[in-house]
Structures are given as structure tokens and as C-alpha cells.
Amino acid sequence: MYTNISPTWLTYLIKNTPNFILIDIRTPLEHKDSHIEQSILIGPNEIIKKLNELNSSKKTKLVIYDQDNSESPTIANLLIADGYHNVSILEGGLQQWILEEHPLESTN
């Protein structure tokens, strides 16, 4: 089962946890426009393949987010079914991150 983490807890992870993967499952255009620091863009349909390419351990801490948590729970459950043990989703998605006024990056 995945866990929910708050934007404040994610901020703590970004600053203090070197070996976790923050995954943005939105579209490439959305990610380019704005995203959370250290997040990597991986499309929902290729997440298992990409994580295998990254040689991530099944025990690696994974945090997934989308715009509003519409897809994150499904992807988290997919990863758990594939054997990942430490999967979380960002409560409220990027919308909640923005509401709580956490910083965003852009590649524009």
C-alpha cells in the first residue's frame, strides 16, 4: 500500500534525503512549464520501464505526483504490484503544492 505525504514533508525529503526519486507523471509540456525541484518526468505508460533503466532498487523511496492526484494512486498501485516497497503520492498533487506556496522550477 502506498502512503500519502504532505507538501511540507516532501520539502523535507528534497532537502534531506539524497536517495529518493520524485516522479512527475504529467505531460512533457506541463513539466516544462513548472515542476517541483528534483522531479523527473516519466509518463504513466513507461514508468516501470524507466525505473528499470534507472536501476532503482525496489526499496528506493518513490514519490509520485500529477496535477490533482487523478492518476497518482493508480500509478502507485502499479508500482507496488511490480514489487516496489516504498511508494508515496503527494497529497493534493501539484495543486496542493502551489496552494501551500512551495517553490516551482521551470525549464522555459
Structural account:
This protein is 37% helix and 19% strand. 28% of the residues are buried. The protein starts with a strand and ends in a 9-residue tail after the last helix. It has a five-stranded parallel β-sheet. The protein has helices at residues 7-16, 28-33, 47-53, 72-81, 93-99; strands at 3-5, 20-24, 39-41, 61-65, 87-90. The protein has one domain (3-37, 49-82, 91-99): Rhodanese-like domain (Oxidized Rhodanese, domain 1, 3-Layer(aba) Sandwich). The mean pLDDT is 94. The longest helix is centred in the N-terminal third of the chain and has 10 residues, at 7-16. By secondary structure, the protein is of the alpha/beta class.
List the helices and strands and how they pair.
Layout: E1 3-5, H1 7-16, E2 20-24, H2 28-33, E3 39-41, H3 47-53, E4 61-65, H4 72-81, E5 87-90, H5 93-99
Parallel strand pairs: 1-5, 2-3, 2-4, 4-5
